[in-house]
Amino acid sequence: MNVSNNGRVDSNDLAKRGESLIRKSTNRYLTTVKIAFRAKQRRFDDFDGLLEESTIKPVQRSIIELSDEQDQPDLLPG
């Protein structure tokens, strides 16, 4: 993940990750819903104080997480 000095995500990297998620999926709608659901979970985790203060928006974070899970499935627990 490329984060600039001011804590923002590189927009080109984020766009490539999003395109990769959609391209590799069998159902674009379900992938979009999965991203939205993950972002909603992250947003509530932020409100509950479960996550550290982050300057990355929940949707951006969910795209990055899902992209990492897709590209590196061996990193997942279980």
Number of beta strands: 0
Q: What is the 3D shape?
A: globular
Poorly predicted sequence stretches spanning 5 or more consecutive residues: none
Largest sheet report = none
Distance between the termini: 24 Å
The value of Rg in angstroms is: 13 Å
The share of residues in helices is 55-70%
What is the helix tally? Answer: 3
Describe the protein in words.
The protein has 78 residues and is mostly helical. The chain has one domain. The chain contains three helices and no strands. Helix 1 packs across helix 3 and helix 2 crosses helix 3. The protein is globular. The two termini are 24 Å apart. The model has no long low-confidence stretch (mean pLDDT 82).
SSE layout and pairing:
Elements: H1 11-24, H2 28-48, H3 58-71
Helix pairs in contact: 1-3, 2-3
Summarize the structure.
It is an enzyme of class 2 (transferase). This protein is an all-alpha fold and 78 residues long.
Q: Can you tag this structure with a few keywords?
A:
78 residues; 3 helices; 63% helix; 0% strand; mainly alpha
